[in-house]
Design a protein that fits this description.
15 strands, globular, 8-stranded mixed sheet, Glutamine Phosphoribosylpyrophosphate, subunit 1, domain 1, about 30% strand, 8 helices, homodimer
């Protein structure tokens, strides 16, 4: 009884029909694999690739732009056997989640960042391209105007004004396959106007993505706070004792206590899915033996 | 009653007089600050700067070289108020721990990597230079010969043959100041022959470094395993309930269960220090009101 649950980001936005379409395409792509005996890792990768290729999400094509107008993507994947791979500040690979999976499978490392990550992706033969969209370029121009200070762009704008935007459009997935293996993954262009080289929770095992033999989860929201509190590790660690649904709720409580918002999807060893968010909105979809559902809240 | 504890790496080596000298210089530099009312963050930074500047350690000057013979440093710092900063794959800044602290204090981010991190360090006015030493260049030549495969260097050598070398010479510190504030930090050149862009546990909050109002800790050892299991977060999280000494022991048990070795130093809210390792050797030193001690095991 496999299951797949995906999210399209948490924050202050109004998920619409395009998000729903993208999320359903992602769970459908994963489900085809899961039904034919594909692994949880295959399912998570396929779901996230679909969303990376869809410019409505802030991942792969359509990623947000950093302070210098450049795309720098973060992505990570982890399996229930504790294997893990991630990339950070990847500039050109079209599908960062594929690069993350190759780090896991083809190197002795967990995380590659910056030019080294791009070089690795090229050597692995992954397609690259310009991931900027017209919408993102226009948004960047607007941000530059907002942050212009006395005729000059500040070296590092105070990003707290953008807090509500932070997790918007990040994508993630958690899946269980027919053999009971679990996987989770996350992919994101990160926050708009970030300092070049900024690595967010989406690239950090334990922060945005975590998995154990008991559960797997992907989180998104205020990235820096998620990194300081390792929310995905926290939820997955608790899931073995209290189940993934209570574990997600308990993680959200920690966020509320420390004053930051995020959303999370997860799956546990019996295939049950879980989701929760403490932000204005979140979008997600799932497919299990009970059928296919989307949620736009 | 302030206290400071530092380590000079865990692994398979024989700590000698030079390590002892370097570790004592580090705790002395920190102690001067702590005695005159300096913060735990100041003490951790000062101790680590001393060790980064000492070529006997694998941090700052004398860092190990990656597959291409280039230095790429990781460093991180975290305080008991959950503020945190880190840099990864930093190529030229002489004191990566200072760059990590500036990320914490001067940006809205937790982690900067690659060229973005170097650019940030330059803009902050941090001195840079060539961090390679003759000893490291010679070791790299030897490694290239070892990994040469049919006349060609493999794109990614299997690094498991280097496992014992992994945590050697990484440095870290944990301190409590007179006001009871805690801090921990870690700095490293990472593993020899790593793939360019590889980010290790020393740059990851929760893996190599963590702090909470109850405890602060720095870990070193098999970096990728430390990242997958977030050992510093685990120990610091447990310290509130069982004390930092038992928490370090308990973290080492997790390492033994999953089959990887590491060492750790920590401090807790009452100023008690803790240390432990599950590798062949580890070197450390501490200074508390009870006096100054070194350990080379």
């Amino acid at each position: 009884m496999p299951s797949i649950i995906v999210h399209g980001g948490a924050g202050a936005y109004e998920p619409g029909k395009e998000h729903e379409r993208g999320l359903l395409a992602a769970v459908d792509a994963a489900w085809v694999l899961l039904e034919s005996g594909g692994s949880a890792a295959d399912a998570v990768e396929a779901a996230i690739v679909m969303m990376e290729d869809d410019p409505i999400f802030n991942a792969g094509l359509g990623s947000s732009l950093n302070l210098e107008g450049v795309v720098e993507c973060d992505a990570s994947i982890m399996l229930s056997d504790y294997s893990a791979g991630a990339v950070a500040a990847l500039k050109a690979a079209k599908n960062p989640i594929r690069a993350a999976r190759l780090v896991m499978e083809r190197t002795d490392h967990v995380l590659l960042a910056g030019e080294g990550a791009d070089s690795f992706a090229r050597k692995m033969g992954l397609p690259s391209g310009d991931l900027r969209t017209e919408r993102r370029i226009e948004l960047h121009r607007k941000n530059l105007r907002t942050f212009r200070d006395g005729g000059e762009i500040k070296f590092m704008p105070n990003l707290r004004g953008l807090a509500d935007e932070m997790g918007i459009g990040t994508v993630g997935a958690a899946a269980m396959d027919a053999e009971g293996r679990l996987a989770a993954g996350t992919s994101t262009g990160g926050m708009m106007m970030k300092v070049p080289g900024r690595v967010g929770d989406g690239a950090v095992i334990g922060a945005g993505t975590y998995a154990s033999p008991h559960a797997a989860a992907s989180a998104t929201g205020h990235g820096e706070a998620i990194m300081r509190h390792l929310v995905a590790k926290g939820a997955v660690g608790a899931a073995g004792d209290i189940g993934v649904r209570e574990a997600v709720e308990s993680a959200l409580e920690i966020g509320r206590f420390h004053g930051f918002g995020f959303g999370m999807v997860g799956v546990e060893e019996n295939g049950a899915t879980a989701l929760g968010f403490a932000t204005q909105a979140m979008s997600w979809a799932e497919r299990t033996d009970d059928g296919r559902r989307t949620f736009l809240e």
